[in-house]
Amino acid sequence: MSSTSIGWGTRLAYGIGSVAYGIKNNGFATFLIIYFNQVLGLPAILVGLSLSIALLFDAVSDPLVGYISDRHKSRFGRRHPFMYAAILPTCIAYFYMWTPPDLSQTGLFIYLTVMAIAVRLSVTFFEVPNSALIGELTHDYDKRTALSGLRLMMGWLAGVIMAVVVYRVFLAPSVDYDDGLMNLEGYRQYAMTAAIVMGAAMLISSLGTHRAIKHY
Fold first, then answer.
1. Exposure string (b/e) for 45-77, b if CB count within 10 Å is 16 or more?
2. Global confidence as pTM
């Protein structure tokens, strides 16, 4: 795609692609340890170990998905087949990570590990191709820099806004919970909301950049 043909709609759609990643990162960094440790009772060392295993898995899957995407050929191009395919798994995995069944500590540790890997992997199948899409949108260095900055900003804002909503709405102190962070149902409401927002952002970004497919 030529550097002069990128409309604001396409730019915005590309930037929105980082919303899911921002929400996921914020959830992992801000609430997940509190939830599994303080609310569900899983020892902190097991929560940390679980998330570390998922992070190591992510270190392998990220370059692998990038390699596969770079070499993929289809009528939907190199990136969009993975972007579209990742939407539903990401929503499902993120929601269920926050709604575990009644399990023993060992079971809860295994559950968290599996679901954390599933969330990271499904997001990777969207995030890596979506990030690489910048190369198909423009060859202009300045425009690439601007698009990259927009994407980073929107991902950061999405995480911050979601955190504010969680603290103010889902985990706010109430009659039943002086400490809103202990509200089990609040985390489940957050999980549903976050999954919907992530899925919507991924779909908007995929559809909004779809016109770039013919230029691959």
1. ebbeebbebbeebbeebeeebeeebeebeeebb
2. 0.91
